[in-house]
Write a structure and sequence with these properties.
2 domains; mainly alpha; VapC50_C; two-stranded parallel ribbon; 146 residues; single chain
């Protein structure tokens, strides 16, 4: 499993964060971050007006789902990653199944990641190019929200 170090900018935007962490849940790579990254994330969320309860909940979820993600000595890590298209597609389908409202399909999620200030147009374009979206054209019914 490849290690991938995430800076605050990756964890700050909800759809981007959910996307990279949903892929990580498949075991394709191991997400890593530092204490200072989480502290910066919390500061930026506060500046955006996110209440302390939501910030605390997010911190708890990150530490619970990825208990070994917080690292030190990370500056030498190289996150060269060759994403397996089928695994990514499965992770994205799982991710959208968790949402109660839009985006409700993988195609809609890729639109959000490409256009909603997430600066992931290259990722979205690569996903669209590399994966057949037949099963994602219809909305996926979720069981909980993110």
């Amino acid at each position: 499993m490849f290690p991938a170090f995430f800076d605050t900018c990756v964890l700050f935007k909800p759809y981007l964060r959910d996307t990279v962490l949903s892929i990580a849940e498949t075991g394709l790579y191991r997400p890593l971050w530092s204490t200072s990254v989480l502290e910066e994330l919390e500061r930026n969320l506060r500046r955006r007006g996110v209440d302390e309860h939501r910030i605390s909940r997010l911190r708890g979820q990150l530490r619970s789902v990825f208990p070994e993600a917080e690292v030190t000595g990370y500056t030498d890590l190289v996150d060269q990653l060759d994403l397996a298209p089928r695994t990514v597609h499965r992770a994205l389908r799982t991710q959208v199944s968790r949402y109660r409202r839009s985006p409700r399909s993988v195609a809609e999620l890729l639109d959000v990641l490409a256009n909603d200030g997430h600066a992931c147009k290259g990722f979205a374009d690569a996903c669209r190019r590399d994966i057949t979206w037949r099963s994602s054209a219809r909305p996926v019914r979720g069981h909980h929200s993110s």
